[in-house]
């Protein structure tokens, strides 16, 4: 992973958190140490982790991260203005900031990107030019003035013909401006196609432009990520903005979400267009929203991985991903356009301890019981009589790998239900395979072919429906079909379920043939 962002419980004792939030300091630190250590193992050498926190655990968390990532890998403590309406509960200060601790894994490559340098921008206005009316499309003008609604009317050198809604530092709506402009509307539209950026630096609306250069120049981020008393250069919102975002999406989530603009800002500082972003305290899914928004802006192909333990994955995160994929602009639960970039995502529910217990099947061996007497129950029963339980992989059931079932406890409670589990996908993970291609075929029965890579070798996996009544003709047809499908892939190793008559000669290639079942069993029992 290049970038990790997490927003863990702040250990404030607030009962509204869906995570347990009343740990003693030592218990909280133990919980965090376990997760941060695992996160470090997943990071690239150049990876960076951002962790949101407030002053309740700031110092202890920084010491912990200095131990996990080493003290010299500390990069910065960014300060974020998290609210425009701080509570007045303290006699000392009104709490209106939170912090983002930032550490590198081993080294960072290049500098952090805060915002595009604006030193080479130029005025669009020119005294003496004819008065022209220019229309600026949504999201095409950057504002260095606070978010809000700016009413139409006469300014110093321009007349604003429409109200302008500024949100996250950009114009949310199209607006018209009457001014002594250097450009016509046609020229303006051509410049937009070339990537020209328009800037408004004051409430006078004296608009400027910045042509896209071959290589954009970036200014490193300020330590203070925006403040209501300073110019909001970064365009980062507050908790109030985050609640509005979810309200407009018609998603109910009350556990202090972060605004999209904050995560967007952090990810952009260090994440290239093809990197992976991880968030293992996913909350309402803001990190995924931010990645999709950034991809839409710069044409990137970043991917995200979210992990969440709470029970609202299907009621909050998935609906949010679907809605943002359709449109980035929502109001009162309705899309304002269809400008979404679409998305393909996969979500998985991991087997729980209770699921494992529900799938244990005990089959007593009376002969062994009589032979070993009391020792049988203590030393042999659990080890030997549960070997064919579904949770340990029942080899017999793998004859049809597409219909393997386990008992799973439903989210809504009640009795466990039998559901089909994805055996091929599980095997991919156990092998640690980097997937390249997947294809499904039918040759009288279903076949699944998977091509992946591990340790520089191409590995193919073949899963198909198989039974003990196959004839010699069935095996011959099976072999010919598999060779025909796999030969273009030129794998080094082929895994196949059930019986087969495959040999090391795969068409014009020599391969190693392995059986899925013993390898699966061995990896499951590690």
Question: Secondary structure elements and their pairing?
Answer:
Layout: E1 3-6, H1 25-42, E2 48-53, H2 58-69, E3 74-81, E4 97-104, E5 115-116, E6 122-123, E7 131-136, E8 141-143, E9 148-150, E10 153-154, E11 159-160, E12 164-167, E13 170-171, E14 175-180, H3 185-193, E15 197-200, E16 208-210, E17 218-219, E18 224-225, H4 239-248, H5 260-270, E19 276-279, H6 286-298, E20 303-306, H7 313-326, E21 330-331, E22 334-335, H8 353-358, H9 366-372, H10 374-385, E23 405-408, E24 417-420, H11 423-431, E25 434-442, E26 446-454, E27 457-464, H12 472-486, E28 493-496, E29 505-506, E30 509-510, E31 512-515, H13 516-524
Parallel strand pairs: 1-2, 1-19, 3-18, 8-15, 19-20, 27-28, 28-31
Antiparallel strand pairs: 2-4, 3-4, 5-17, 6-16, 7-14, 9-12, 10-11, 11-14, 12-13, 15-16, 21-22, 23-24, 25-26, 26-27, 29-30
Helix pairs in contact: 1-2, 5-6, 9-10
């Amino acid at each position: 992973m290049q970038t990790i962002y997490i927003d863990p419980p702040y250990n404030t004792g607030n009962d509204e958190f869906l995570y347990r939030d009343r740990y003693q300091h030592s218990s909280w630190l133990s919980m965090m140490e376990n997760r941060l250590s695992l996160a470090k193992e997943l990071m690239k050498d150049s990876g960076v982790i951002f962790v949101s926190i407030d002053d309740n655990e700031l110092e202890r968390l920084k010491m912990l991260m200095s131990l996990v990532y080493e003290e010299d890998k500390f990069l910065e403590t960014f300060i974020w203005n998290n609210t425009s309406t701080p509570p007045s509960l303290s006699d000392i200060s009104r709490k209106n900031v939170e912090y983002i601790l930032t550490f590198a894994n081993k080294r960072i490559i290049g500098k952090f990107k805060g915002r595009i340098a604006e030193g080479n921008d130029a005025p669009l206005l020119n005294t003496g030019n004819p008065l022209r009316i220019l229309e600026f499309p949504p999201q095409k003008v950057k504002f260095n003035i606070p978010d809000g609604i700016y009413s139409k009317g006469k300014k110093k050198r321009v007349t604003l013909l429409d109200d302008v809604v500024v949100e996250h530092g950009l114009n949310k709506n199209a607006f018209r401006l009457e001014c002594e402009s250097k450009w016509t509307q046609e020229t303006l539209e051509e410049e937009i196609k070339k990537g020209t950026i328009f800037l408004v630096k004051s409430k006078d609306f004296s608009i400027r432009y910045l042509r896209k250069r071959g290589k954009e120049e970036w200014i490193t981020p300020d330590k203070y990520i925006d403040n209501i008393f300073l110019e909001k250069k970064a365009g980062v919102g507050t908790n109030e903005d985050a609640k509005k975002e979810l309200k407009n999406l018609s998603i109910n989530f009350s556990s202090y979400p972060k605004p999209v603009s904050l995560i967007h800002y952090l990810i952009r500082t260090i994440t290239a267009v093809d990197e992976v972003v991880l968030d293992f305290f996913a909350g309402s899914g803001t990190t995924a929203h931010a990645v999709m928004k950034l991809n839409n802006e710069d044409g990137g192909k970043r991917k995200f991985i979210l992990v969440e333990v709470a029970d609202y994955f299907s009621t909050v995160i998935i609906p949010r991903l679907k809605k943002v994929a359709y449109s980035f602009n929502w109001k009162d639960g309705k899309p304002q356009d269809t400008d979404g970039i679409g998305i393909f995502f996969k979500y998985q529910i991991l087997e729980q301890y209770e699921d494992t217990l529900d799938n244990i099947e005990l089959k007593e061996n009376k002969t062994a019981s009589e032979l070993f007497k009391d020792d049988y129950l203590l030393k042999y029963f659990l080890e030997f009589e549960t070997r064919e339980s579904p949770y340990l992989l029942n080899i017999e059931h793998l004859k049809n790998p597409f219909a393997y079932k386990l008992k799973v406890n439903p989210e809504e409670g009640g009795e466990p239900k039998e559901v089909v589990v994805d055996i091929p996908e599980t095997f991919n993970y156990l092998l640690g395979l980097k997937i390249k291609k997947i294809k499904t075929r039918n040759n009288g029965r279903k076949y699944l072919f998977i091509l992946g890579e591990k340790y520089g070798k191409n590995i193919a996996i073949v899963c198909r429906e198989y039974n003990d009544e196959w004839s010699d003709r069935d095996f011959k047809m099976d072999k010919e079909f598999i060779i025909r499908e796999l030969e273009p892939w030129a794998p080094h190793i082929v895994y196949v379920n059930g019986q087969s008559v495959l040999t090391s000669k795969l068409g014009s290639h020599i391969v190693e043939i392995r059986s899925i079942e013993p390898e699966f069993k061995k990896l499951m029992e590690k």
